[in-house]
Design brief:
Layout: H1 2-26, E1 38-40, E2 46-48, E3 57-63, E4 75-82, E5 91-96, E6 100-104, H2 105-114, E7 122-132, E8 139-140, E9 144-149, E10 156-159, E11 174-179, E12 182-189, E13 193-197, E14 206-207, H3 209-214, E15 218-219, E16 223-225, E17 233-235, E18 240-247, E19 252-257, E20 269-272, E21 288-290, E22 292-294, E23 297-304, E24 308-313, E25 326-327, H4 329-334, E26 338-339, E27 343-345, E28 353-355, E29 360-367, E30 372-375
Parallel strand pairs: 2-9, 15-19, 26-30
Antiparallel strand pairs: 1-3, 3-6, 4-5, 4-7, 7-8, 7-9, 10-11, 10-13, 11-12, 12-18, 13-14, 13-17, 16-17, 18-19, 20-21, 20-24, 22-23, 23-29, 24-25, 24-28, 27-28, 29-30
């Protein structure tokens, strides 16, 4: 019996020593140097990305070898992070066992936007190389800053009681689809609160009403600061289905009553003229939609040009709608409308409206209930 007990004890000790030796092997391969260096590109270099050349090189990296105490096969990972960050939220762009790699425009654009690149603006982003070996500790290169001009934008989200299909949760958030830095969604709105978010499921990514005000956005009047502690948006218009648009190029937020799944909205009015962005043209989307934002109220944030004229059309047939019903300055005045002093009779033969206020983004509103036309 004693011999059997000794044999078991000896086997247990041997197994324990063998296990300890295995554990020490896992950390035996250690970096021989604190870091290694990126050779190209040079910090401060830049690239402009284009959606027409997705396969073109966006960044070509070369670097020194990572030095480990024991010769090993090294895997290199290219990492991207917001400029000046500690790489806590780094994105891994690609892996390679070589010491050079080309990241294409198609591979870089979305990660660049995710890392904070401002669309169509040169934005500094940080890159580094992470080296790893089996059974070893990771080793990191120096960090370089590379200026990236990205295109497009990332989709965003909206949740809140003001959007009943979403509510205050992440099971079914409303999605804002991005196209050329313009975000849109079609949702049912009620008289309650909601907020926009840049990341799905991340409460910390919220953008409330004061955020957009501080950025200089012109916001349609039926969206107000809820003053609810979180300063969410509150919808005050008539509950219905609306298209919500955040135009990050012109810095505007608007809503438009939605009655069709696609095509021209029949319940909207339309602005055409030299005072508006599209001028005197119906080509493409040159006409400016003046949508219903609540019962009897038409409003749009629009860039108006000083001392230029325009007219209000009541219909749009999808083509050159010059023959569609339309109204000039005397038409509204004759119906008893009070018209803002920054709008006068152009006296141009057609008696169009002439805008005499400063050039800039203004809230143009026609309230058919109170019979007031205003520019705020």
């Amino acid at each position: 019996m004693k011999n059997i007990f000794k044999s078991i004890l000896t086997l247990a000790l041997f197994t324990g020593l063998y296990s300890c030796e295995d554990e020490s092997n896992l950390v035996y391969i250690e970096p021989a140097a604190a870091s290694f260096q990126i050779i190209t590109p040079t910090s401060g270099d830049a690239v402009v990305l284009s959606e027409t050349t997705l396969n073109n090189p966006a960044i070509s990296l070369t670097w020194d070898p990572a030095q480990y105490s024991t010769p090993s096969s090294v895997t290199y990972t290219i990492q991207l992070a917001p400029n000046g960050s500690d790489f806590t939220n780094a994105q891994d762009l690609a892996n390679t066992t070589s010491r050079n790699i080309v990241i294409t425009t198609g591979q870089l654009n979305v990660p660049a936007l995710t890392a904070g690149a401002v669309p169509f603006v040169s934005t500094p982003l940080d890159f580094r190389i992470k080296a790893t070996v089996a059974g070893g500790l990771p080793l990191y290169s120096n960090v370089i800053t590379y200026n990236v001009t990205a295109f497009g934008c990332l989709g965003q989200y909206a949740v809140g009681a003001g959007i009943p299909s979403a509510g205050w949760g992440w099971s079914s958030p409303a999605n804002l689809i991005c196209d050329n830095n313009v975000l849109t969604m079609k949702v049912g709105l009620v008289n309650d609160t909601f907020r926009f978010f840049t990341e799905n499921g991340n409460w910390g990514s919220g953008r409330n009403f004061p955020y957009y005000v501080a950025q200089g956005y012109k916001i349609v009047s039926v969206l107000e600061d809820a003053l609810d502690g979180d300063n969410n948006f509150r919808f005050t218009g008539t509950p219905d289905t609306y298209r919500v648009k955040i135009d990050e190029n012109n810095k505007t937020i608007g809503v438009a009553k939605s009655t069709v799944s696609s095509g021209i909205e029949p319940v909207s009015y339309w602005l055409v003229g030299a005072a508006t962005p599209g001028g005197w043209s119906w080509t493409g989307n040159n006409e400016t939609e003046l949508p219903v934002v609540s019962n009897g109220i038409y409003e749009v944030p629009v860039n108006l040009v000083n001392n230029e004229s325009f007219r209000v059309w009541l219909a749009n047939d999808g083509g050159d709608s010059w023959g569609s019903p339309n109204r000039n300055y005397p038409s509204f005045l004759g119906d008893g409308y009070t018209i803002d002093s920054e709008l006068i009779n152009a006296l141009d033969g057609d008696s169009n409206f002439r805008y005499v206020g400063p050039t800039g983004i203004r809230l143009f509103k026609i309230n058919t209930v109170t019979k007031v036309i205003s520019v705020d």
